[in-house]
Design a protein that fits this description.
CATH topology of the largest domain: Cathepsin D, subunit A, domain 1
Shape: elongated
Number of strands: 13
Helix content: 10-25%
Largest sheet: 4 strands, mixed
Strand order of the largest sheet: 8-1-13-12
CATH class of the largest domain: Mainly Beta
Structural class: alpha+beta
Number of helices: 5
């Protein structure tokens, strides 16, 4: 699915309520370019997978998305991205979205936008409609080593060291403790048993 950047839209808008999680009632209305008032059927959070500027997949959650079934496009509000998530949209020839620094590594996540008929878009994968209708989306997610955004555990398909990096960011535990985690937590990824990843000097165990 394509997510269109819109500097004139007050809120993020999506067209399919099935794609949203944490859905709440919402009675907001929108006036489109067709001068017709469109009703909102709910508001929720939109999970999806997209590729960063280097081609690596990332699982993201876009919060407070209004569902307007009579719209034809998914719109990302430039103002809402900044005001609620501190996500910068950069034009000026760079044409990218820049997320806040990672709290552990300090690295910035940058997602390239593409221009399509005068509009700037990013490509996302994993919404409900594409899971029903397009096997190509499933194949892309599988090749990227990550599950659909609605899957219960999206890290099950990652390598042992990649799983350890994710769990280290959550728990700040050393490699020995991470290896033992599946023995004490039934939903901990079994791949942790095989990790060789040494997270950081602060977690070195003696």
């Amino acid at each position: 699915m394509s997510l269109t950047l819109d500097s004139g839209c007050a809120w993020h808008v999506h067209t399919n309520l099935d794609d949203l999680v944490n859905v709440r009632p919402c009675e907001d209305t929108f006036s489109g370019v067709d001068n017709i008032v469109h009703g909102c059927s709910g508001v929720g959070d939109l999970p999806f997978v997209c590729l960063d500027a280097s081609g690596s997949p990332h699982r993201l959650l876009l919060r407070n998305v209004r569902c307007v079934p009579t719209f034809t496009d998914t719109l990302l509000s430039v103002d809402q991205l900044w005001e609620q998530s501190r996500i910068r949209v950069v034009f000026e020839g760079k044409n990218l979205i820049e997320l806040p620094p990672d709290p552990v590594s300090g690295a910035l996540l940058r997602i390239n936008m593409k221009r399509n008929d005068g509009l700037f878009e990013i490509e996302a994968f994993g919404n409900a409609r594409e899971r029903r209708d397009a096997t190509s989306t499933r194949a892309l997610l599988a090749n990227a080593g990550i599950r659909s955004a609605h899957a219960r555990s999206h890290i099950d398909r990652l390598g042992a060291d990649d799983v350890a990096k994710i769990m280290h960011r959550r728990l700040h535990a050393g490699v020995d403790r991470l290896r033992k985690l599946p023995d004490f937590c039934h939903d901990a990824p079994d791949a942790l048993r095989r990790t060789r990843h040494a997270p950081c000097s602060a977690c070195t165990e003696v």
